[in-house]
What we know:
Blueprint (H helix, E strand, L loop, with lengths): L2 H29 L2 H7 L5 H15 L2 H13 L5 H14 L2 H7 L8 H4 L3 H18 L3 H27 L6 H7 L5 H15 L2 H12 L6 H14 L2 H6 L5 H31 L11 H19 L3 H11 L24 H28 L6 H29 L5 H37 L5 H27 L2 H4 L2 H25 L4 H32 L5 H9 L3 H13 L3
Amino acid sequence: MNIFSFIMLIGGLTFFLFGMNVMSGSLEKMAGGKLEHLLKKMTANPLLSLGLGAVITIAVQSSSAVTVMLVGLVNSGIMQFSQTLNVIFGANIGTTLTSWILSLSGIQSDSVWINLLKPENFSPIIALIGILMAMLSKNDQRKSIGTVFVGFAVLIYGMKMMTDAVSPLADSPEFALLLTKFNQPLIGVAVGLIFTGIIQSSAASIGVLQALSLTGSISYGMAIPIIMGQNIGTCVTSLISCIGTNTQAKRVAIVHTMINVIGTVVWLPVVYIMKFAVHLSILNTAVSPVTIALIHTMFNISATLLLMPFGKQLLRLTEWLAKGVQQGAEQIEVVPFLDERLLLSPSVAIRECNNATGKMMELSRENLFLANSLFDQYNEKKAALVLQTEDEIDAFEDRLGTYLVKLSAQALSQGDSQVISKMLHVIGDFERLGDHAVNLAKVAKEIYDKGVSFTEEANRELGILARAIDEILTITVNAYEKNDIEIASKVEPLEQVIDQLTAQMKSNHIARLQRGICTIEMGFIFSDLLSNYERISDHCSNIAVAVIEVIHNSFDTHKYLHGVRYGNNEFNSIYDGYQEKYSL
Length: 584
């Protein structure tokens, strides 16, 4: 084996890792919000959690990615540490699928049909189909499927390069001498751990081992400890990801490591006994890619079967090892913590941003309702709560805006990009609704401090306007939460009715001033109230338009509003209904 073979080995490993990364990213993009939904369905049922963990890992083709995702979700407070244990067990089993796919490279047969099962033989066809789908299809889902196919083909090409690079080693006496070192199981564990820890991919390190096995130089006695070490080495990614997280998130990475370490500690002595005491002859037999996949699967299943019955004890041991502030006693932020680790799983991050945006919207609506209630009976504590809630809303906008900008730079599906666009459009409107709640609270305080009141006629009109504002807020929130165009289309007609209401109320106010039944001072307060109510309805209109336009993949607000206001029978019908309902 010369320098060029070594360069080919490095190149093959690079292609393998790149293909795996492309596949993982595209598969996750296809999964979209379903991935986050599945993770949240983790229950106390161990078998359900185990199965879902395996399914999600198969979907994204990376147990490390799933564990890092779990670290981020626990650090965000979205999941509890105890919910992650069986998911990790499932992830360890799900990750073995890749080794089974790679094991097909060892097929030897004279039959054309059987040889077609070898990945290097059918992957060029997969690559052609994939590139055509990615280039010609206009459907985002099909493009992602095409990218998965291309990523798979690149991965298999990398595997073939590694196999070709190490094939000369079969006749190398130096390599045979080096392999005698691996007859010591502890050295095998260390080599598997270090190599996997460096490249941070157990699938790739298993692939290298499978490539080496085709030389006929790797025995069972060498392969088993190396695979054990590779399972420990894959935990390096989650251990790195937990740096700077809270205690609960650190425990996720620690329990992931402990599962693989305990599995090795239990089964490695068995290998020693079989090798040095019993002298089991099979341990000196050469392994194949298929038997490596089998060993990999059996080790992860056996470790799971061994440790699952002791789940509670394992959780307590992890909590003892990672001592820290007890759950619930750590500082809890008012704004949900959007963990940057979730940026590695954009679909999950988007769903959590959407949840946070929903909380921000609900805070804005409740704050407006609270501010409105101050006109009926002013209360200092309620007024202070309005100001406090506004600070929370401002924090939401700041955190969400920054996070969404970072998230928009990730590889996203068209649907995910639209959701981010919608959120970026609406969080400013939610924040402005909070500002108007503060303005209303200040007006209520001014009325209370000065001991003044509106005329009976003005109070009647304000009551009608307040009901219209309550309804437009409720409709807007429902439209956003349900992402419903039909509900959102009712906002603009009501906003037009509110504009006409405020215009008519201003005219009525001027008439009362002229008749001398209303003071100039109350006129300023009345005008201030109408301006705030009118602006609230405008922001509701902006939010509804964003809901509608994001589905149409267009944010030409002026064009949309012009289209619905003029010559639109449905708009006119809804408008007439609201005009009759809120007539002065």
